[in-house]
Design a protein that fits this description.
Strand order of the largest sheet: 2-3-8-5-7-6
Structural class: alpha+beta
Number of domains: 2
Mean pLDDT: 84
Strand content: 15-25%
């Protein structure tokens, strides 16, 4: 307790220098917290965009589908599989899908466009996808309005709706209600063709979506292609993004238990980072930047910390010599200087946490909108918004604070050991030969 009181008083001997050093370390910590919040916010945004795009957190396919991308590699008993997956703990939503490459044309244009055809269950897709929010005209995979009239003739009631991108609609000269022809591979024959009516127009800001993708009802596409109750893909969003691996294990256990007779087919369960390793690599590289930021910030702060501590030693060398001469142990001097460093680190951490929390709160609630510079960006087929927000996850505050606190203590070891190695007579007579 006595050492603590002495360390506290000694810390404020030179009040101006102590305040400047504490402020500098605290500001450095606040900057570090803000930078980590920014990086973690980007990670969270990317994972959220991955989940809310067509990828989800987890996907199930026929075991050879990802490698071969063959239309014939489907999963039977889709209805049973979907119901089973929705009962797995930790899954927020499931979207069964059929996937084709096809061509689309309209009577208003002579051009034919190659598109990716995604057939979805509209209600299930709405619960887990961000695409419904991008519909600028009409609805998200809805039937043509005329088919809902009770007195509509049978030929009208059989009409099928299609959602297309804004750029594709422009190329096809199509608008709501326009008739288009969609040609894809079929299951009962080599090809299948059907007329669809535009019931929604999508503007996502991504060429991959706005020019090259159309969405139709899963039920309609199963009928058109003769797929029956088969699907190519089941995509899932989980409740907790940190528990994806646990959910994958639960899914695999459920499939193993329900597929004893092989009725569900040969299935492969894959988390998003196996489906799109490019994004995982990007996140890994970005995560490494946190370590680089820590090293850079500590390199900058080390100059201030070491300068302050050596000035303390230099100014009080004669005092240390006198204390050694009257019987104070070198270990006590070492502990006293280290306690000063610890108190300085604690105060600087408190300042950094307060200022950093204010900065993080701004980035979390307001963010930075860069849409005036660009309309978002696309990577690995996924569109990312240009409004960036920080993260308020615990690690944003804990990791930088520990790095700065421990770093300050480690930097203080050198001058503290110098004090412990002082010779009493030399320190008194010469002002500090520290050996």
């Amino acid at each position: 307790m006595l050492l603590f009181k002495m360390a506290w008083r000694n810390l404020w001997r030179n009040r101006r220098r102590s305040v400047l050093t504490i402020s500098a370390i605290g500001l450095g910590l606040a900057i570090l917290i803000t930078m980590v919040s920014w990086m973690e916010g980007m990670f969270e945004m990317m994972i959220e965009q991955v989940a809310r795009s067509s990828m989800g957190h987890v996907q199930i396919h026929h075991s050879e589908y990802i490698e071969k991308r063959s239309v014939k590699l489907t999963m039977p008993a889709a209805s049973r599989l979907t119901t089973m997956l929705e009962a797995v703990e930790g899954i927020e939503g499931v979207s069964p899908r059929l996937l084709f490459t096809g061509s689309i044309r309209s009577s208003r244009s002579s051009s034919i466009h190659v598109v990716k055809v995604v057939a979805v269950d509209p209600e299930r897709e709405r619960k887990m996808s961000g695409l419904p929010d991008k519909v600028v005209d009409g609805g998200f995979v809805v039937p043509p309005p005329e088919t809902l009239k009770p007195d509509a003739p049978a030929r009208v009631k059989n009409r099928k709706g299609i959602l297309i991108g804004a750029k594709l609609a422009k190329h096809l000269k199509a608008e709501l209600g326009s008739k288009v022809r969609l040609d894809t591979a079929g299951f009962k024959s080599n090809t299948s063709a059907a007329a669809f009516y535009v019931t929604g127009i999508l503007r996502a800001g991504s060429d991959a979506l706005d020019k090259s993708m159309v969405m139709v009802s899963l039920k309609d596409m199963q009928a058109v292609t003769g797929a029956g109750d088969r699907i190519h893909e089941a995509t899932m969003v989980v409740e907790d993004v940190t528990a994806v691996e646990d959910v994958v294990r639960r899914i695999e256990a459920s499939i193993t238990g329900a597929n004893g007779d092989g009725s569900l087919g040969d299935l492969a369960v894959q988390p998003w980072w196996e489906i799109s390793p490019e994004i995982k690599q990007m996140l890994d590289i970005s995560d490494a930047w946190n370590g680089i930021m820590y090293l850079l910030m500590m390199s900058i702060l080390s100059a201030g910390i070491l300068t302050t501590m050596f000035m303390v030693v230099f100014e009080r060398t004669r005092e240390f010599g006198v204390r050694l001469a009257v019987g104070t142990r070198p270990r006590s001097l070492f502990l006293g200087v280290m306690l000063e460093a610890i108190l300085m680190a604690l105060l600087a951490s408190l300042v950094g946490l307060v200022v950093g929390a204010i900065s993080v709160a701004y980035f979390v609630h307001v963010g930075i909108d860069l849409s005036s510079l660009a309309g978002g960006w696309e990577f690995a087929g996924i569109f990312f918004e240009n409004v960036y927000r920080g993260s308020a996850a615990p690690k944003v505050f804990i990791e930088p604070t520990l790095v700065v606190f421990v770093g300050t203590i480690l930097f203080a070891l050198w001058p503290s050991m110098k004090v412990a190695r002082m010779k009493a007579l030399d320190a008194i007579r010469q002002g500090g030969v520290t050996g």
